[in-house]
Amino acid sequence: MRDTVVLHPGLGVGHLVPTLELARLFLRHGLAVTVLLVEPSGSGAPSAAARAAAANNNPSIHFHALSLLEEVEGEKGSPPPRECDPFAVLRRANAPLRDYLRSALPSVRALVLDMFCVDALDVAAGLGVPAYLFYTSGATSLAVSLHLPHAQAALGARSFGGIGDGDGAPLRFPGVPPFRPRELPTGALDRDNELYRKFLRAFQRIPESRGILVNTLEWLEATAVAALRDGACVPGRPTPPVYCVGPLVSGGDGDQVNNNNKRHACLEWLDAQPEKSVVFLCFGSMGSFPKRQLEEIATGLEKSGQRFLWVVRNPRRDDGASMLANDHQQPEPDLDELLPEGFLERTGGRGLVVKSWAPQAEVLRHGATGAFVTHCGWNSTLEGVTAGVPLLCWPLYAEQRVNKVFVVEEARLGVEMAGYGAETAVAAEEVESKVRWVMGSEEGRALRGRAEVAKERALEALEQGGTSHNDLLEFLRGFDGGASH
After folding, report:
1. Which of 274, 405, 412, 485 is most buried, most CB within 10 Å of its CB?
2. Is the Cβ–Cβ distance between 146 and 206 less than 8 Å?
3. Do you know which SUPFAM superfamilies this protein is assigned to (predicted)?
4. pTM above 0.90?
5. Could you read off the pLDDT of 138-153 as tens digits, one per residue?
6. Phi, then psi, of 418 in degrees rounded to 5
């Protein structure tokens, strides 16, 4: 039997997509690949339709379902907790994972785990299977994650949120630009937050793996990569080898997790727009705003006078179930109800609003796209970088604020949309001014120039002899799997 790499992605499409791209890399190097998918989709895993589309679009990959048989605490009979626990959900996959690996041995040469599957390290150790971590975000975020347990321990009984209400002296983590405590994920501002403590435990376990594959390129995050490889992020413990294998982004050759091969109407609309004239606004598979914020965005876009393509999603419920809910379960938005009266008619000549979803990678690569208003999810950030598009950063949740710090302060590939994360909405005036700035100012043109350079370096990294290509070969040599091409 062929040497096999088994990949165990976390919950959600945002984790599945880069995992599929990594699987494609392994296939090109002569390995057989199995991707494990958790069922049922109500657990927060990708929907049945998304799983089927992933299989249909990747016929050379073997997909295996891990069935979750028990209820998650809080799902039965009462409303779900405000913060659902992805670690608990994925621990329930450990028993079927163990059964599958036993049946597949001895061909399995490596198990590659998402960070949220870190407790499966125990399963791999019990079976003698080499286990690696695939960190689907960037090296800067990884540096923060690995150093956070040490930094929290140094604070003792205090919380990061207690340092000037999150706005105190900047935090200085190895390999990371100085950042304010409030740039950490929200849960990290309260040391007694139960889910935050579970994240700390997961971060502490990452160095137990044999190596960490990171979805980045060394040139883009050189400072963070150097700190990781020097061991500076995990004081007192060895850091396993770090392999930069990115950027792993959708190639624009068909959506990986949607069964829709027809060309989207928004691309035809873009065909009719001048080169680099359109601002694209899209906030990820879980990014949505309340009606008030949508109205401010609409007003700012209208007053800016710029062309725009805007993906609007239905406002979500503010609970844990909503955050783990599948993307396909969200109803389509009623644009007439959510947006200012007459907005669609007044801007119809230069703007297009799309409901719920657009082919983001293809939009960003389209010649008419000139800027990207993004939530700074790492998949979206890399798609913007590889398309050579400047970023207007509007982080919403998880590690996105840390990603914003990197994009704005170190990479200098974007600017911050001021006012995000506040109790009040980002003002229409801010949207208007930043959109005009990036599209028309001298500084905006300089930003676009840096974005073009980053695009070139990203493409070079994946080519034969590039840094990410070489890191992948080094990883393969580490477990003597696959042919080195």
Report:
1. 405
2. yes
3. UDP-Glycosyltransferase/glycogen phosphorylase
4. yes
5. 999 999 999 999 999 9
6. -65, 140
